[in-house]
Structures are given as structure tokens and as C-alpha cells.
Design goal:
The chain is mostly helical and 217 residues long. The chain contains six helices and two strands; from the N terminus they run αααααββα. The chain has one domain (3-213): CDP-alcohol phosphotransferase transmembrane (TM) domain (Four Helix Bundle (Hemerythrin (Met), subunit A)). The chain has helices at residues 3-23, 33-58, 64-88, 95-117, 126-145, 160-213, and strands spanning 151-153, 156-158. It is elongated.
Length: 217
Amino acid sequence: MNLPNYITLTRIASIPIFIWILLSTRFTAPNGEKELLACLVFILASVTDGLDGYLARRRQQITTMGMLLDPLADKLLIAAAFITLVQFSPETVPAWIAVVIIGREFLVSGLRSIAASEGFTIEASDLGKFKMLGQIVSVVAVILAHRWQYWPVGGFLFPVALIAKLSIWFMVVLSLVSAADYFIGFWKKIDRTVVKRQRRRRFVLSRRRKNNDVPVA
């Protein structure tokens, strides 16, 4: 067990803490401390997503366990966050929105698994990387909007509730577009793989026919 894997495990361990802070009736805070603490936990957990991968590459500590745990931790964190928000703020995050966003995560994971079994990889697109930032903004905005409609910043009232609704809808659109982008990239590569296999098979069959046609002296 190395440092990057420990960081990944802390991301997984933060998930039940995040859920407990938001949904536990024993944790009450009249001034919004509950929402602020939940936002802090989620942001820190999200930051570890890039940190563990960076350290693994920098320290040359890429392991099989890390390759398994890292995407698993990402999917668990996002699924837990949006499922929790369905109960915590159903007027902003209805169940079908959570299904779309979480479904996109499972779709991409499935495509990557099939790609790995076929001997090629699907690189993370710019949309996929941007999606993570959108998830952080949307989750934090929804949590804050549960307590405040507006957030005072330097004499200006920041429309938190409006940002929460817009960011959630933006996440829906981004999830669908990025899922389509991954699927198109997967389809192109799997199509090339099938064509290469067919050519290789034809070549092998033609060689066998030639060898069979050679007269025996």
C-alpha cells in the first residue's frame, strides 16, 4: 500500500461522513454549519481525485490496486453525492436527474472495460475532465442553496439558488454530451479493431491455403 492508494482510500472513507453530515437528524446547525461542513468534505474528497493520480505518476507508484480503486472511488463519490441530494434537496435534484448523471458514469466504466478486454484504451476527453469541475460546482451549489437563496460576497448578493438550478441542468446536458463523445470514440476504435481482426484472419487463411497448395515432392 503506497501513498496514492491511501489518498484514494480516504476519498472512499469520506463518503459515509458526507452522507451522515447531510442526512443525519442528530447533526443540527442553525447557522448553516452543517451545509458548510458537507461542502468542505465533498470538495476535499474531490480534490484527492487528481492528487492521487498525480502522485502515482510522479512517484512511479501506479499499481493494479490503484487502477482498481481510483475509478471505483470516483464513481462511488459521485453516485453517493447525487443520491444524497435527491433526498436532501428533491426540489432541485429530482431522481431522474441523478439517474442520468450516475448512469453516465456506469456507461463510461462499461465502455472502458470492454475496450480494455479488446486491447485498447479510451482516453479521458476534455469534456470528461470538465465534467468533474461541473460536478463540484453543482453539488456545492445545491447544498448551499438548501440554506441560503443568496450568498453575500463583497456587498454583492450571489444568487446561490439560481446557480444551483442552472448548474444541475448544465450537468445533465454535459453528462449526455460527454457520454455520447465517449461512445463515439469507443465505436471508432472498436470498429478499427474488428477490421484489423478480419484482415488478419483473411491473411492467415490465405497463407494456409497457399501452404496446402504447395505440391509435396
